[in-house]
Amino acid sequence: MAGGLRFAANCSMLFTEHPLLKRPSAARACGFDGVEFWWPFESAVPQGHDVDAFVSAMDASGVRLIALNFFAGDRAAGERGIVCRPDRVHEFRANLAVVAELGQRLGCRTFNALYGNIAPGDDASAARRTAVANLDAAAAAVDQFGGVIVLEPLSDPHPYPLRTSSDVLDVITTVRQSSGCRNLKVLADIYHLATNGDDIDFLFNSRLGEIGHVQIADAPGRHEPGTGTLPIRHYLRLLDDVDYAGWIGLEYAPTGQTAESLQWMGSGHWSGKR
To answer: 0.85 cut: is pTM over it?
Structure first.
């Protein structure tokens, strides 16, 4: 395996044996230089002292925050983002302000805006217009400090409408035509793409410039590579061959302790994991 790839620990799924604010330091102890998080607060607009505590934990850990999710709603209830929700525009814009603040304070430049569910009976046209306006605003806000908004296909829940990279690229094209923004890209999560039957080889070979971030987990099960049937090493070799320069987030549920789940990485001679 070539060694030019950079790996980041998703600290919302890994190192959960530690309190959330201790996870970046735990990742550092395992050799990571970068971490990513889902939205690490209970609400879209957390208290200032909670934001400060998160920033302090990141600063003290010695790792970089390389990707951060927007507030995604009530995940336990099946919500997967609020970008397309006409009734939650104010909440999204308020969250955007906090996301941008964290990006500037921590040097994070990649932000995952989950699209949101469209249930039967919802006005799909209104949802699309809302999403385009919100993504335009988000892209403009983070562009001021070199940030990129990434949009992700998911394999569940089924009301979530973006299932493939083509679905995401269709939305991105609409936003670009509306505003001309260029800092909106695809989050290529191998687990979700493979589960939905997307052509990952084609995406990496032919649409590399549209990819803003990559994440991996094996399938079925969404655990560490080697626990399922996906050819993860093939995809990593392909990313290395096409000179993918971004980070790869390890976004999986470890089958045991996190440190044990990292054994698939071998000797650890990777850029981004010592």
So the answer is: yes
